[in-house]
């Protein structure tokens, strides 16, 4: 949930310190797959669950992605923001946290490990896709639950 500047449809990612659900339907024409994830790489404001209603994800036996930890109360002081927490890239900048260099090999930091330990199946930094992106067959129905 984020702020799209009062617009009904976001033209960007919204403001930092938001829990982000990313979803793309019917990707890779030959395979007809839906891709989805929850990302804390831009921040956190509410616990969330995103899950298919009728299939198992391809990433192990997980049936959906959740981040139900009370991160707002445990957040490192330097990342605190009104209504949630900021991401390290917004607070500190630089390739170490933003992964912006053309061939960046940035990895997890103490901050991303803090979030990954509390929500193991979500993106915790920009290059965290291998363990945090899930797929289901195209045309799967999903449930989105805020504050589970």
Describe the fold and architecture.
Disulfide bonds join 4-10, 67-119, 89-98, 99-106. This protein is α+β, with helices and mostly antiparallel strands and 148 residues long. It has a single domain (20-146), classed as Thaumatin (Sandwich). The chain has 4 helices and 9 strands, in the order E-E-E-E-E-H-E-E-H-H-H-E-E. The strands form 3 sheets. Strands 1-2-8 form a 3-stranded antiparallel sheet, with no helix packed on it. The chain has a 3-stranded antiparallel sheet with strand order 3-7-6. It has a 3-stranded antiparallel sheet with strand order 5-4-9, with no helix packed on it.
What would you call the structural class?
alpha+beta
Widest sheet: strand ordering: 1-2-8
Number of strands: 9
Please, how many helices?
Answer: 4
The unreliable regions are none
Query: Sheet with the most strands?
Result: 3 strands, antiparallel
Keywords: Disulfide bond
Family: Belongs to the thaumatin family.
Protein name: Thaumatin-like protein
Disulfide bonds: 4-10, 67-119, 89-98, 99-106
Keywords for this entry:
148 residues, alpha+beta, Thaumatin, three-stranded antiparallel beta sheet, globular
How are the secondary structure elements laid out?
Elements: E1 20-27, E2 33-39, E3 43-44, E4 48-52, E5 65-67, H1 71-74, E6 80-81, E7 84-86, H2 88-92, H3 95-98, H4 110-118, E8 134-137, E9 142-146
């Amino acid at each position: 949930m984020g702020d799209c500047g009062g617009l009904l449809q976001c033209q960007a990612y919204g403001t930092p310190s938001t829990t982000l659900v990313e979803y793309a339907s019917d990707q890779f024409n030959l395979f007809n797959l839906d891709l989805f994830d929850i990302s804390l790489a831009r921040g956190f404001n509410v616990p969330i669950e995103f899950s298919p209603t009728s299939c198992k994800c391809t990433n192990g036996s997980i049936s959906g992605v959740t981040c139900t930890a009370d991160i707002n109360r445990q957040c490192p002081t330097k990342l605190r923001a009104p209504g949630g927490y900021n991401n390290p890239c917004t607070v500190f900048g630089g390739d170490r946290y933003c992964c912006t260099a053309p061939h960046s090999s940035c990895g997890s930091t103490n901050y991303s490990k803090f979030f990954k330990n509390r929500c193991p199946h979500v993106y915790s930094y920009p290059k965290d896709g291998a363990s945090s992106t899930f797929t289901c067959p195209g045309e799967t129905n999903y449930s989105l639950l805020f504050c589970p």
